[in-house]
Design brief:
mainly alpha; about 5% strand; globular
């Protein structure tokens, strides 16, 4: 940990977080990079930011407040890190979490993984809870495809779903029960390709969804 972030976890946190680095501690310790920081300090803050992104968005687990230790070796060398297929890893982790969630019986069971990706795919393929779309705001002029908006930008301007928050679960469950095969475009290959392409040529993402 000291070699990765330049500091150790406080003693009071070491015993209570065996699964990973506490996200609250990352925010408190690396929330603002000091002005005039040297290259090493900037590197520590970059690693902390990516680790927080992994633990809160891309690879969140059921704990809700930690980034797994397993990512530390993968983020040590920037050149090596950039060569990994993170899109495939995020998708595989989500599949694993969905599989485990279906088999859980605990009253406190929860779903991990990148649920934002699952929600976007659901909006595109299943007409349940799908918000009304409005034309997205104009994107600023950029050079190259990698700086263009991804497929998720399709949902930049939407109207709030019709379901009331108190009854959303019941109403969505009823809609899911009423679905017919003709109403669903459930192509797992397009799910895989639409996310894989997020790390490549984003100009072709619209057909993938």
């Amino acid at each position: 940990m000291e070699a990765f972030l330049g500091r150790l976890l406080p003693d009071e946190l070491r015993g209570s977080h065996n699964t990973g680095v506490p996200l609250t501690w990352l925010r408190q310790s690396f929330g603002q990079c000091p002005p005039g920081a040297d290259e090493q300090t900037v590197g520590y803050h970059c690693r902390a930011w990516i680790l927080h992104l992994f633990g809160s968005v891309l690879f969140p687990d059921a704990t809700g407040d930690s980034a797994s230790w397993m990512f530390l070796p993968c983020l040590t060398d920037w050149d090596t890190t950039g060569g990994y297929s993170w899109a495939s890893a995020v998708l595989a982790f989500l599949y694993r979490q969905l599989c485990e969630a279906c088999r859980r019986s605990s009253r406190t069971a929860s779903l991990g993984g990148c649920v934002y990706l699952l929600q976007l795919w659901m909006w595109a393929h299943i007409p349940v809870g799908r918000p009304r779309e409005f034309p997205p705001r104009e994107w600023f002029v950029v050079a190259g495809h990698r700086l263009k908006p991804t497929a998720a930008y399709r949902w930049d301007q939407v109207e709030e779903p019709f379901a009331r928050h108190q009854r959303a679960y019941v109403e969505y469950s009823n809609e899911l029960d009423a679905l017919t095969p003709s109403m669903v475009s459930c192509l797992l290959f397009s799910f895989y390709m639409s996310f894989l392409l997020l790390s490549h040529d984003t100009s072709v993402l619209t057909w993938a969804f």
